[in-house]
Amino acid sequence: MTTALFRDDFYLSTTEAIVTGIREDGGIELDQTCFYATSGGQPGDSGFFERADGGRIEIATTRNGDTKDIIIHVPAADQPVPLVGEKLVLHIDWPRRYRLMRMHTACHLLSVVCPFPITGAAVGEEESRVDFDMSETIDKDEVTLALMKLVNENHPVYLQWITDADLAANPDIVKSKNVRPPVGLGRVSLVCIGENSAVDSQPCGGTHVSETQEVGSVFIAKIEKKGKENRRFRIRFGTPETGPIV
């Protein structure tokens, strides 16, 4: 079992940890980690582990094991193998993680602008997508304006915790139509936007910025028809006038 520090502090980019196991495929298990494991459409963190002698172990990605409380750090090719019991200093690729945090928060804001059941989502560094169960025709520029209004209003973004039982008793808070929030850890995180959740509140285990203004400039680049009642929205950093920006 790994203590997932990212669940309580999205901005924690470095920490110490002890190696608790090396898997047959080379995956590294630790007693605790700030590396986010792939889940809910958000990619796992990359970065490196620093050893006591200054050596580095480059980490290509992070994923879960058989359960959510098992987190596996996958080294890049040809990396040294640490010893069980070895103390390491973990360093996330912070610029990449922060872009994913901004994008993931933008996806939540899009679900406010388009209040339809979510049928799929994928968070990326340059572009994200959210699929909605909807048949309506909608103008992408109007969606962009509504999205940026929420960004510029600079609403706070924060977590609240509820129990698995609370979630079971209130199933309507889940916006995703096909994927249920992870349960079994005893508690579920609600990502809340706005004072007293005035803008939005939904279960999510991903990482997010602390206020909507941090999202920066985003726009809807394309709305695709993916079936009679399914629309795919593609979000990118930048503006419709300038196009994608870093």
List keywords for this structure.
246 residues, alpha+beta, six-stranded antiparallel sheet, five-stranded antiparallel sheet, 3 helices, 16 strands, 36% strand
Compose a concise summary of this entry.
The protein has 246 residues and is an alpha+beta fold.
Description:
This protein has 246 residues and is α+β, with helices and mostly antiparallel strands. A 6-stranded antiparallel sheet has the order 3-2-8-5-6-7, with no helix packed on it. Strands 9, 10, 14, 15 and 16 form a 5-stranded antiparallel sheet that branches. A hairpin with a 4-residue loop joins strand 9 and strand 10. The longest helix has 20 residues. The chain starts with a strand and ends with a strand. The relative contact order is 0.16.
Distance between the termini: 37 Å
**Sheet with the most strands: spatial strand order:** 3-2-8-5-6-7
| Unreliable residue stretches | none
Largest sheet: 6 strands, antiparallel
| Secondary structure tally, helices | 3
Overall pLDDT level: 91
- SSE order: EEEEEEEEHEEHEHEEEEE
